[in-house]
Every structure is written in structure tokens, then in C-alpha cells.
Design goal:
By secondary structure, the protein is α+β, with helices and mostly antiparallel strands. It has helices at residues 100-115, 138-148, 201-219, 257-263, 274-284, 335-350, and strands spanning 19-23, 29-35, 49-52, 64-75, 121-131, 153-159, 163-169, 172-177, 180-191, 224-236, 239-249, 271-272, 295-299, 305-309, 313-317, 320-329.
Length: 353
Amino acid sequence: MRAGTDFLKNTEWQAQPAFVVYRLPGSEQVCVAELAPDAVSQPHRGTTYFVASRFDCFRGSMPYFLPVLNERSLPLSALSLAFSPAAVTQDHYHAAEYDKARFLANVQTAVEAMRRNEFQKVVLSRPHWVPGPVVKNAALLFQELCAAYPLSFVCMFNHPRLGCWLTASPELLLQLEGNTLHTVSLAGTRVQGEGRADWGLKERTEQQWVTDYIRDVLEHNGVKHVLMQGPETLKLGHIEHLRTRFSGEFDPAAGLDGILQALHPTPAVGGMPKDRAAAFIAGHEGYDRQLYSGFFGPVYANGGARLFVQLRTARIYANGTLYFTGAGITADSDPEAEWVETENKKHILAQFL
């Protein structure tokens, strides 16, 4: 293992190196890691990996377990990256802007399907393209995101085939330490200062559905003595969510495959029931989510893991930035209000780029 971050000092980037820089929620430390460009399909105990996945992993693809070649932990204040995010990629994006009318029509179609009891909830998303390279220094951008969202998983990930991604995700998918497993249910969204003393019925109902679903998933997949805390309001900049935290006992010898397949995609990015919601998404969204709404994070040599749902994310291209945002749709959803929700979420990252 090479010490330091010398592999990030190249300013030409012809090789488009595989690397990740991340800060775990609540930490003042940042991890900088060089990654192997070739993924393995199964992690092996004794090796540390950084894992990335698509939304449709376990159906159309598998998670990418990228071995860590060398890594360093350092104080966030000491992070130095002498490049801009656009400098690490040679990928260019060329596509028409996603039409608002299409999103509104999709929401209305979903509402009608739910009123026919075809499913309970679906998360519909859309991309938003902003041309022009990101020229801000990568370290400054990363530090600003960490300061603004101290309880989020902040990550800058680059891979020659998967692209360059920037994330500030509030949603833990799975944390495994010894035989203790943690996860959360996250649902309901509002803008701070909307003047409501309490959450509305739509948000509270949606959050309860997600909470019930995750509790059942845990109890039916080997997690014992499940405890819940919440719901509580999670504040992320100008956005608020409802969150319930879970913990329980899990045997690490059982491996991550089963519990990951049971949890992912969560109702926060897919819907309920998840197979019907995923089929609706595949048939209606009409674009490739790529790594958006998959999961990111380290899997440690000792068998532990810290994996986060890939929300509040953007892919950085050499010629601009592609943002991804979504909204949880229920039978009571108003299409225009859901569009506004996706606009609000876009600014979580866009205000810093």
C-alpha cells in the first residue's frame, strides 16, 4: 500500500484513474482511496472494497466491488486536491433535456395505477442537464458539501467506465459492525420554512409504509431483536425528511448478498411493492438512471460495511453536469407539486457547482 495521495497529483488524467474520496456522516475525517479498475462480483474477507451499484442491480447487473489498492485517512481540513471535477473525466454528454410534460404524465399515470390498487408507491425520477464544465477546485467543493451536510455521506467517485460522480446522500442502506446491523427508513420531503407545524398526512403515511416494509424485510432476513427509533425530522440544508432508525443483530457469516437483495431498492428510490414499482419505472421513466439510486460505500476487510443509497447525486462530465432527482408518488400526489419537489432537490448540489 502506498501512503499519501500521490496518485491524485497527475493533472493530465489521460488514464482516468479509479479513485474515491468520501466522508462518513458526522465525521471530521476523509478517506482518499485508489481503486482497482476491474471489479469483482463477490467481496472476499480480508480485502477492503469500495462498492458501487446501479438501481437495477440484482436484476440486470451486479454491484461493482472495486478493490482498494491504497488509502489514506486525513482531517477534512487537510484535504488537498489540485484539480477540478471536470478534469478527471473525458466523458461528454449529448442528449435532449428531459421534458417536464413527460414527467407530469408519468406521475399522473402512476397515480391512476395506484388508485386501481396496482401498487402503493413508486419513485419517479428525472435527469437535468447543465452545460459547462465544473471548474471549482475539487477539495474546496468537497469541503463545502461536508460543511453544508454534516449528516450526509459525501463522496467523489471516479471510474474509467462508470464515470465521475458527486454525492451528498442522507440515506443509509446498511451499516454492519460486528454482529450489529443498522439501516433507516427515509420518506417524506418538504422545504424548511413552509409554515407547517407538523408533517402532512401524505408524508406521514408514506413514511409509515416504508418503515413497516423495512421492519418486515429485516425480520424475514435473519436480523434479530430489531429496535426502531423515530420517526424524526432530518434537516438537510433547505430540505427536510422523515426518518426512522433501525438496529438489530445479524450474523456476518451469512454474507451481504441476501440482506442487500432484500433491502435494495428501498422504497425511497423504487416503491412498494418493489417488483411492481420497478416494472413501472422501467416502462415509463424512459432514461438510464446509471448509478443514481444504486448504492455506494466501503466494505471493510473485517466484514463490516457502510453503504449508502445513491441520492442527491450528479454525474460530472467534461462538458457539464447531469443531475438526478426523484419524488415519491402516492395515490394522493399532485403532478405539479412532485415536479417542484424534484426542482428543490436539484439545488442541494447545484448551488455548490
